[in-house]
C-alpha cells in the first residue's frame, strides 16, 4: 500500500493550513486546495516540505460547482504524476465563508453566498470526488460550535453549517458500505484569521470567551488541525456519522 493522500480545501491559511500540516506530520501526502491555486498555496506546501513531507497546491473554488468536473480530472492527473496514485484517502472540507448579520440585515445575495458555498459547494464537491475516494477512506466536514450555542447575527452561517452536519450523518450511511467514514468537526472560538481575524486580534473578545470556556482560553488553529488529523487516523476507525466539537468546553 502506498502512502496515503489527503485533500484539504481552503488549506492556504487558518484552520485549513493547520490541518494540512497536521496530516503531513502523520505521514500523509497532502493536496492543498484553495481559490488562489499554486501561488496562494505555496506557503503551506513549503511548510510541509520543510518538515519532510510532500504536498502540491491546486486551484479550487468551492463556490463554483461548474468547475468541479474539470477540477476532478485535473486532480486525478496530478495524483498520478506526483505520487502514482488514482485515489484520495482523506477529504477535509474546510473551505467556507462567514457572512454575519441580523434577521433584518441579511440580503438574499449574502444568504445565497453562504448556503451556496458552505453547503451546496461541500455537497457537490463530495459528489464529484466520491468516485475517487479509496474504499476505507475518510470525509471530514468542518462545521462550527455555533450549531450548538447561539450568537447574534449568525443565523444563516450557523444554519449552513447545521446542514453540513446533517449531510455528514446521511452520507455516513450512504458511503458506509465502502468503508468510508464521514464525520463533522465543530471548532469552537479559535484565534485564526476567520472573520477578519476578530478572535485572533481582539484581546477583549478572547478574554470574554475565555471566561466562558471550561479550559479557560480560546483555541489555537493547531489544536483544531490535530483533532482533524486524529479523526482521520486508524485509531479512530470505528467513528462515523458523528459531530465532534473541538472547543475546550466553550459556552457550556
Provide tags for this entry.
single chain; 252 residues; alpha/beta; Rossmann fold; seven-stranded parallel β-sheet; 8 helices; 7 strands; 44% helix
Largest sheet, order of strands side by side? 3-2-1-4-5-6-7
Overall outline: globular
**Main beta-sheet annotation:** 7 strands, parallel
Give the distance, in angstroms, between the N- and C-terminal Cα atoms: 43 Å
Number of strands: 7
The CATH C-level name is: Alpha Beta
Give start-end ranges of low-pLDDT stretches.
none
Number of discrete domains: 1
- C-alpha-based Rg, rounded: 17 Å
Q: Structural class from helices and strands?
A: alpha/beta
Number of continuous helical runs: 8
H/E element sequence: EHEHEHEHEHEHHHE
Q: What is the architecture at the second tier of CATH? A: 3-Layer(aba) Sandwich
CATH topology name, in short, is Rossmann fold
Portion of residues in helices? 40-55%
CATH superfamily: NAD(P)-binding Rossmann-like Domain
Short characterization:
The protein has helices at residues 14-25, 37-50, 68-83, 108-129, 155-175, 194-201, 203-210, 221-231, and strands at residues 5-9, 29-34, 55-59, 88-93, 133-142, 181-187, 243-246.
Describe how the helices and strands are arranged.
Blueprint lengths: L4 E5 L4 H12 L3 E6 L2 H14 L4 E5 L8 H16 L4 E6 L14 H22 L3 E10 L12 H21 L5 E7 L6 H8 L1 H8 L10 H11 L11 E4 L6
Parallel strand pairs: 1-2, 1-4, 2-3, 4-5, 5-6, 6-7
Helix pairs in contact: 1-8, 4-5
